[in-house]
Amino acid sequence: MGSTGLEIARTKMRDAGVDEVAIETFAHYYRLLEHGETGMIPESTIEPLEMESLADVDVADEDAAEAIKHTAVIKLNGGLGTSMGMDRAKSLLCVRRGLSFLDIIARQVLHLRGEYDAPLPLIFMNSFRTSGDTMAALSRYEDLPVEGLPLEFLQNKEPKLLVDGLLPVSYPKDPDLEWCPPGHGDLYTALRGTGLLGRLIEAGYRHVFVSNSDNLGAVPDARVAGWFATSGAPFAIEAVRRSPSDRKGGHFAKRLNDGRVVLRESAQTPPKDLKALADLDRHKYTSTNNLWFDLRAMQEALDARDGILGLPLIRNVKHVDPGDPSTPEVIQIETAMGAAIEVFDGARTIEVGRDRFVPVKTTNDLLVLRSDIYDLGRDFVLDQASDAVPYVELDGDFYKLVGDFDKRFPDGAPSLRDAKSLTIDGDFTFGHGVKVVGDVSLDADSAQRVPGGTELRQGSE
After folding, report:
1. Where residue 247 falls among pLDDT bands split at 50, 70, 90?
2. For range 218-242, the mean pLDDT
3. Which of 65, 323, 408, 457 gets the most CB atoms within 10 Å of its CB?
4. For residue range 149-189, what is the model confidence (pLDDT) as tens digits?
5. How confident is the model at residue 1 (pLDDT cuts 50, 70, 90)?
6. What CATH number should be reported for the domain holding residue 30?
7. Does 287 fall in a domain?
């Protein structure tokens, strides 16, 4: 028997129909919490990691074509975009030409199927909050499902725990807020618990490519598939050089005591090491969350561990209602799927171009994506049309929420192709055909309008 809090949580999860493997995985991390585990990775325990670049790797065309024919694609699609004021799947956001993230993902995969004569199944890991809207949006793509495989499987859910006492929180005002997803490390638990891992193997697939649905640069590229297949690695993650916008994000490193590659997230960094975390010259690479794994290697690892990979704990403290700081503080037990890299002997990382990492976490990112920085080709792949992606920082008081953001760009995003940076402090509404050149900073104490056709340059405010 476990502690009172754990037993209450177990009962709550069983009553909600949560898979037993997911319950045992939660129990594993609950016990770590009870024993004071924080999941922190001090700077003194790691050293910087160097890696090969995809640009320097030769991949034969026949290896690429063969690999993509035995690859399945999984998109993580459990997020609601609540930080941007959304209450449905973030992937339903319009990107351009009336197409959402989901539309573009579906069309990317359909195009690749035709190009390589490959089945390339596309499967979404949805949450209980994103499943309905996502499946309704995908219903228009009649050719998308692959016979014998589902279009979706559901990630698990777990109780939020009160910081004081680790009891599952009760919130009658909105019982859904008593639950949280276990982080994207739940991917492996859910694949095993739903039986999908075994079904993919039985259907003859060898590899899986996983990425976030809000990253349209994460195309299941045949060349990367060929590199992974011929490398013989059981697990691999694509990395990019960190930029100023990645200073607060996670990075790769090598653990000193055993030489394993680790992925350190910002939530796993002690406060005294935050300066080292932000040092782009020391820790050069961040994860794209585009990862590849060998299906049989994953099955063997899970079987050997009774379904629990034992990924590092992430102790995430939030309020039970994230939008109301007056509600009780809770702990959300999370894991990161990329952290599985330390589980596998022979796991690899490879540096890829920034074009494979175009995440949309904020409206700053959304403005760049909707601008002319990227062209959308006939293959529905984003083609970067400028030498560099500009830095964008919008005033959170006026642009943080998608509804407010859209009101201030009623005629579309400005041209950013010749911009280096755009910083807005204040309330500005943009007319049609505005162009930003170089470094531009706008600042005003009252609402302003930028007329259509304006060319904004440094000092032109």
Report:
1. confident
2. 96
3. 408
4. 999 999 999 999 999 999 999 999 999 999 998 989 999 99
5. very low
6. 3.90.550.10
7. yes
Contact 54, 355 (CB under 8 A): no
Using the predicted structure, report yes or no on whether residue 459 has a pLDDT greater than 70: no
Q: State the pLDDT at residue 2.
A: 57
CB 185 within 8 A of CB 311: yes
The yes-or-no verdict on residue 291 having pLDDT over 60 is: yes
Q: Give yes or no: 361 in active site.
A: yes
Mean pLDDT of the 116-121 span: 98
What CATH number did the domain enclosing 374 receive?
2.160.10.10
Do residues 81 and 90 make contact, with C-beta atoms less than 8 angstroms apart?
yes
Direct distance between the N- and C-terminal alpha carbons of the chain, in angstroms, rounded to an integer: 66
Question: What is the band of 82 on the pLDDT scale with cuts at 50, 70, 90?
Answer: confident
Q: Name the domain boundary from 356, 372, 394.
A: 356
| Catalytic one of 12, 361, 400, 435 | 361
348 and 400: one domain? no
Token pair listed for 69: 């024919």
Specify whether the CB–CB gap between 151 and 124 falls below 8 A: yes
Looking at the structure, do residues 346 and 233 belong to the same domain, yes or no? Answer: yes
0.70 surpassed by pTM:
yes
Q: Indicate the pLDDT class of residue 452, thresholds 50, 70 and 90.
A: very high
Q: How far apart are CA 428 and CA 395, in angstroms?
A: 10
